[in-house]
Amino acid sequence: MSLMISRAFALSLCLLLAAGRLPAADLAEQYHATADKLIDAALADTEGYNRLTYLCYRIGNRLSGSPGLEKAIAWSVEQMKAAGLSNVRVIPAKVPHWVRGAESARMVAPSERPLHMLGLGMSIGTPPGGITADVVAVSTFEELTKLGKEKVQGKIVLYNEEYRGYGPTRVYRATGAARAAAFGAVAALVRSATPLAMQIPHTGEMNYDEAQPKIPAAAVSPEDAMMLASLAGSGVPVKVHLEMSAQTLPDADSGDVIGEIPGREHPEEVVVMGGHIDSWDVGQGAQDDGASIMACLQAVALMKKLGLQPRRTIRVAFWVNEENGGHGGIAYRDFIGDKIKHQVAAIEMDGGAEAPRGFGAGVDASSMEMLRQIARLLDRIGAGEITAGGGGSDIGPLMRDGVPGLGERTVGTHYFDWHHTEADTLDKVSPEDFRKNVAALAVMGYALADMPGRLVATPVASRRGQ
């Protein structure tokens, strides 16, 4: 009987080894010493934050098609090479070239006062001289539908939807103009998608419906949206004058930046981590997403400094055009081509660099247990949480083809206070929190690239929040 048990155990172990799956309980012990080295190095590091400082103060915001973005791309190539990474290159991508131009909005009745506004990305401009029209305020699309064409035709629609989380609120920014146009509106204003009211407008991408006329669209501060809605709701005629010179030029040449440490045993297998190098044309793109790409670069740079070469290739990627098109993520997937089965995991960081909590992952139950074991190594910096549902827009094309996706998660306390605003500047990034993010990325990235087993993705359609 004992002989049969021994043979069964041996057979089970062989199957586990053949499948590249080892008991998750081994991982925390296996990588404890390496994790401590990486964390200690990250917490003592200043180079990564210095790079972020240069990006924010010397280059600034980086909208697709802009000189600032191309300057950042060239500089990033230099920085990856300086960090000792191999195979540094730019993956070409065509990107939209939207230009904001001069813009303004003001209430002209029942009294005259300027409005705090930012045109929405990809919006058309107004006719020369602008648009002056009555304002009709709604909180939901259902309210807009109830008003109907008779009460909306020729007016500016204001969406005064109170912030209920970014996902539920951003839909008005994304599709509000198209829906208003269907009822004959001449322009759309949306309340900025933020929980914080400090007279700061938040921009972001909007989309048109080709079946409807294109009308100009802009975001206004929460305070201005509440004022306009209150006045309109009280029966007082409200008029707004809107001028926007926005235009979309022909697509521009740009690209993703990648560099790597080749794997010592399986260089053809790749774990990629990164964020997006582009930003909106306001602020400095510090939290969104400059801190993320600099943290990813520094995580891999520290591996190089410590002489750590994982079993597989660890790659850092700065994807382009996440904000208004996603062409960088698509270009990267095209670059991978038929080598998709060699993509072991993809980690995206695109939620700011406040204190890290851990990672979200779209993987099966066994893989989740493996991740929890690795994440225990991050408890000392408060980043040991593993939750279901991970990834991001840039790695979406990889995930749809079966690559396990992870998203680095932070506390996110103030992220949407600054998101897509002039206030997204370096001073919002705590050096201490930045270093903790570097540590979390370094440990997770190294372990995934070095461990004997591989994660198994769950189908994208079953993941929440993708």
Question: Would you kindly provide a written description of the structure presented here, covering whatever features stand out?
Answer:
The protein has 466 residues and is of the alpha/beta class. It has 2 domains: 22-98 and 250-462, Zn peptidases (Aminopeptidase, 3-Layer(aba) Sandwich); 101-245, Glucose Oxidase, domain 1, CATH 3.50.30. Helix content is 38%, strand content 23%. The chain is built from 14 helices and 16 strands. The strands form 2 sheets. It has an 8-stranded mixed beta sheet with strand order 1-10-12-11-13-16-14-15, with helices on both faces. The model is unreliable at 1-24 and 462-466 (pLDDT under 50).
Mean pLDDT: 95
Strand content: 15-25%
The succession of helices and strands, N to C, reads: HHHHHEEEEEHEHEEHEEEHEHEEHEHEHH
Radius of gyration: 24 Å
Q: How many β-strand runs?
A: 16
Cα-to-Cα separation, first versus last residue: 50 Å
Report the oligomer. Answer: single chain
Uncertain regions: pLDDT < 50 for 5+ in a row?
1-24, 462-466
Helix and strand composition category? alpha/beta
Task: Tell me the CATH architecture of the largest domain.
Answer: 3-Layer(aba) Sandwich
Most strands sheet: 8 strands, mixed
CATH top level class name of the largest domain: Alpha Beta
**CATH topology call of the largest domain:** Aminopeptidase
Q: Portion of residues in helices?
A: 25-40%
Number of domains: 2
Instruction: Find the CATH superfamily of the largest domain.
Output: Zn peptidases
Cα shape: elongated
Strands side by side in the biggest sheet: 1-10-12-11-13-16-14-15
Number of helices: 14
